[in-house]
Write a structure and sequence with these properties.
Elements (H helix, E strand, L loop, with lengths): L6 E2 L3 E9 L3 E8 L4 E8 L1 H4 L2 H15 L9 E8 L5 E8 L4 E2 H8 L4 H20 L2 E2 L8 E3 L5 E3 L6 E2 L20 H4 L6 H17 L9 H10 L11 H10 L11 H12 L82 H26 L68
Antiparallel strand pairs: 1-2, 2-3, 3-4, 4-6, 5-6, 7-9, 8-11, 9-10
Helix pairs in contact: 4-6, 4-9, 8-9
Length: 450
C-alpha cells in the first residue's frame, strides 16, 4: 500500500493523493532526478500482476506519448517495479495539470454558461482531433477525464482504454469498454468504437455541462447503457439558444453516420455556433437536413453570437447554478436561466411569440364565418324588409322586452326552421320587428404578449 513519502523506482517521491479509481491511484509526486512536479498513475497490485492489464497500461503510455497537443496531458515515463511488500507495480508518469476534473467543476457550479460550455467543447474537440488524426480512439471521454485549469484551458487525460485503429485488441470477446453514462450506442452493443464514438461521448458531456444534468440515468450500468441505444434524450433547457441545442442533438444522434465523424469536424461545428451560425450538417449527411432519432425540429429563433475568448470557469462573473448531478444519477429537472454576463441573451419561448400570418388568417376566417351565419339568420327571421335609414342605431345591449301575441299567419306555407342559435327567454313567442337590428360589426382579434 502506497503512502506519502513512498518512492517509486527510486526516482519519484509521492507527495499527495490526487484521485483513486477502479484501476489505480494518481499521485502528485516529485521527480527527484529532474526536480519537477509530476503526476504518477500507479496501477493496483492485483491489476499489475495481470498481463492483460499491464499490456493495456503500456498501450496507454505508448499511445499517449505519440500525441503532442496542448490539450492532451503529456506522458513522461513508464515503468514496472516492486512495492515495499514485494508486489508488482506498474506506473505511468504524466504531466501534472494545475486544475481539476470537469466533473468537480460541475458538482460545484451545477452547469456552465453557454460561453464556457462551448469553449470547453471546442477545446476538447481540437485535442481529440489530434488523437483521431493519429488513429487513436479514446473510448472513455467523460468529465472525469477532462481537466480544466483555473484559466479555462482544457486537457484530456486517461487514455487507459484507448485503442489505436491498427492495434490488436486487448479486451476479451464481448467485453464492453467505456463509462455507461457517456458510452456511445455502438459501444454499448459491443461494436468497435470509432472517432465518432468519442464525439458522441463528448456530446453527452456537453449536454450535462449545459443542461446541468445527464440525459440518461438508471439503477445500474447496463440499464443506463441501453438507454443510450433505445431512448431519446429529454429536451435541453429552453433557455439555451436554438443553435446550441441543435449542435448537441446532432452530436448525440444514435446513428454514427448522422453525427460528426471526428473531433475536428465537431470542433468546427462548435466554432460555427460560437460565431452565431447554425451548426453545419455532418459531412456524411451532405447539405441536407439531419434526420436523427435524437434530433428534434427546432422552432425558428434568433441565433446568438457568443464570445470567442477563453472564459475562466470559476471567477467573479461565474454564476453558480444549483447542482443537479452532483453524485450518481441526476433527476431530470428543468434548469431555469439566471441573469449573468456568462450567459448569452436567450430567445423568447415559442408560446410567447405573436401569431403567425397563417394563424391570423385562420382566425379571421373563423370570425367571418360567424358573422356570415348571423347575417343569414337575421335576414331570414329578424330582418326589416324596409328599414328607415334615418332611424337612429340602437345600442348593442339587448334590452328587456314585453312579449306580444303572435300576429295571424299570412300564409299556410310552413317554412322549416333551422336549429336555434341562441336560447331566448320566451321560446313560444317572438316580437314583431319594430326596430332595426344592427348588422354585425367587424371583430378585431387582439393578441397579447406576456
Amino acid at each position: 500500500m502506497l503512502n506519502n513519502g513512498a518512492m517509486i523506482a527510486d526516482r519519484y517521491r509521492l507527495h499527495r493523493l490526487i484521485a483513486t479509481g477502479g484501476m489505480g491511484q494518481v499521485w502528485e509526486a516529485l521527480d527527484t532526478r529532474l526536480d519537477r512536479r509530476v503526476a504518477v498513475k500507479v496501477l493496483k497490485s492485483e491489476f499489475s500482476a495481470d498481463p492483460t492489464f499491464r499490456h493495456r497500461f503500456r498501450t496507454e503510455a505508448k499511445t499517449t506519448a505519440q500525441l503532442n497537443h496542448s490539450g492532451i496531458a503529456g506522458i513522461y515515463d513508464y515503468g514496472e517495479t516492486v512495492d515495499p511488500q514485494g508486489g508488482e507495480v506498474a506506473y505511468l508518469v504524466m504531466e501534472l495539470v494545475q486544475g481539476e476534473p470537469l466533473n468537480t467543476v460541475l458538482n460545484r457550479l451545477g452547469r456552465l454558461s453557454v460561453a464556457q460550455g462551448l469553449d470547453m467543447l471546442e477545446q476538447t474537440g481540437r485535442a481529440l482531433q489530434v488523437a483521431h488524426a493519429a488513429g487513436v480512439v479514446h473510448r472513455d471521454v467523460k468529465p472525469g477525464n477532462i481537466l480544466v485549469t483555473p484559466a479555462g484551458q482544457v486537457k484530456i487525460t486517461d487514455f487507459g482504454i484507448a485503442k489505436a485503429v491498427d492495434a490488436s485488441p486487448v479486451t476479451k470477446t464481448g467485453m464492453v469498454m467505456g463509462t455507461a453514462q457517456y458510452i456511445a450506442p455502438e459501444q454499448a452493443v459491443g461494436e468497435d468504437a470509432t472517432a465518432s464514438s468519442d464525439v458522441y461521448s463528448l456530446g453527452i458531456v456537453g449536454y450535462e455541462a449545459l443542461a446541468g444534468q445527464r440525459p440518461f440515468s438508471g439503477d445500474g450500468a447496463i440499464t443506463v447503457a441501453m438507454k443510450h441505444v433505445r431512448e431519446t434524450p429529454p429536451p435541453m433547457p429552453a433557455d439555451l439558444p436554438p443553435n446550441v441545442r441543435e449542435l448537441i442533438e446532432i452530436t448525440i444522434g444514435k446513428d454514427p453516420a448522422q453525427r460528426y465523424a471526428d473531433g475536428g469536424e465537431f470542433a468546427d461545428a462548435v466554432a460555427a455556433v460560437r460565431a452565431g451560425r447554425r451548426p453545419p450538417p455532418p459531412r456524411g449527411m451532405g447539405a441536407g437536413p439531419v434526420p436523427t432519432g435524437a434530433t428534434r425540429v427546432l422552432p425558428p429563433g434568433p441565433t446568438v453570437v457568443l464570445p470567442s475568448a477563453q472564459p475562466a470557469y470559476d471567477n467573479g462573473a461565474t454564476v453558480r447554478y444549483p447542482t443537479a448531478a452532483a453524485t450518481g444519477a441526476a433527476t431530470p429537472t428543468t434548469v431555469g436561466a439566471a441573469p449573468t454576463s456568462g450567459h448569452a441573451p436567450m430567445p423568447p419561448d415559442d408560446h410567447k411569440r405573436g401569431l403567425t400570418s397563417t394563424q391570423k388568417w385562420m382566425a379571421g376566417l373563423g370570425v367571418g364565418a360567424v358573422v356570415l351565419g348571423g347575417l343569414v339568420i337575421w335576414l331570414l327571421f329578424g330582418g326589416d324588409t324596409n328599414p328607415d335609414p334615418n332611424r337612429p342605431i340602437e345600442s348593442s345591449t339587448v334590452a328587456p322586452h314585453t312579449p306580444k301575441p303572435l300576429p295571424p299567419p299570412v300564409t299556410t306555407t310552413v317554412r322549416p326552421v333551422p336549429p336555434p342559435v341562441t336560447t331566448t327567454e320566451e321560446p313560444t313567442t317572438t316580437q314583431p320587428p319594430t326596430t332595426t337590428t344592427e348588422p354585425p360589426t367587424s371583430t378585431t382579434t387582439e393578441t397579447t404578449t406576456e
